[in-house]
């Protein structure tokens, strides 16, 4: 089986496992993530952190984002511009939120576009080496590549539940490795 087909099978199985977590337990797990990382992620005032609003059965990292903002982070959210491109628009109090693709909402076109220093990255599966499987569109891989072309090297923290871990992710040259992953069990760092 080629890597792409294997990724599709892994994605489907891990998303089904995530979907099977009862909503109240997902919320409990999400709050645990905020407790584990809200005060311990390295953060200097003004650091730009890209989060996301949850869709489907994703972890709800809004409590974590609120903790990071309280510590001085500038927050932004990914916004889908087209099938190939996402940008990161600043999230400020009181700003109107608009539909931003994939069933989520975020800042509108009047919001400032930022280059994140840290990305909290949703995913469908991950392994103990920090390889991840996203949702299949490659948006984050391309966005991270664009940031690196600008000389930026954001810290990449995958956001998942423990049930999304697999023995091995079949990674390809274009796949971006995570620096860490945050689950309900804590923050696990893969690289320095």
UniProtKB/TrEMBL annotation:
Single GO molecular function: 5-formyltetrahydrofolate cyclo-ligase activity
Xref: InterPro entries: FTHF_cligase, FTHF_cligase-like_sf, NagB/RpiA_transferase-like
Major enzyme class: ligase
EC numbers, comma separated: 6.3.3.2
Pfam families on file: 5-FTHF_cyc-lig
Recorded catalytic activity of this chain's protein: (6S)-5-formyl-5,6,7,8-tetrahydrofolate + ATP = (6R)-5,10-methenyltetrahydrofolate + ADP + phosphate
Keywords carried by this UniProt record: ATP-binding, Ligase, Magnesium, Metal-binding, Nucleotide-binding
Cofactor requirement: Mg(2+)
Record Gene3D superfamilies: NagB/RpiA/CoA transferase-like
Family: Belongs to the 5-formyltetrahydrofolate cyclo-ligase family.
The protein, known as: 5-formyltetrahydrofolate cyclo-ligase
């Amino acid at each position: 089986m080629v890597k792409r087909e294997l990724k599709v099978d892994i994605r489907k199985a891990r998303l089904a496992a995530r979907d099977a977590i009862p909503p109240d337990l997902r919320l409990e797990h999400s709050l645990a993530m905020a407790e584990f990382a809200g005060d311990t992620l390295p953060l200097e005032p003004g650091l730009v952190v890209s989060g996301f609003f949850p869709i489907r059965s994703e972890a709800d990292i809004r409590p974590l984002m609120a903790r990071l903002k309280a510590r001085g982070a500038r927050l932004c959210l990914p916004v889908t511009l087209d099938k190939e491109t996402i940008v990161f628009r600043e999230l400020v109090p009181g700003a109107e939120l608009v539909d931003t693709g994939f069933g989520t909402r975020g800042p509108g076109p009047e919001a400032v576009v930022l280059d994140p220093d840290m990305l909290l990255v949703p995913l469908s599966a991950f392994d103990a080496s920090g390889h991840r499987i996203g949702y299949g569109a490659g948006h984050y891989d391309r966005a991270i590549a664009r940031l690196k072309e600008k000389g930026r090297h954001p810290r990449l923290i995958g956001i998942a539940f423990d049930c999304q871990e697999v023995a091995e992710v079949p990674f390809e040259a274009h796949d971006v490795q995570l620096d860490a992953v945050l689950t309900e069990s804590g923050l696990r760092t893969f690289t320095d």
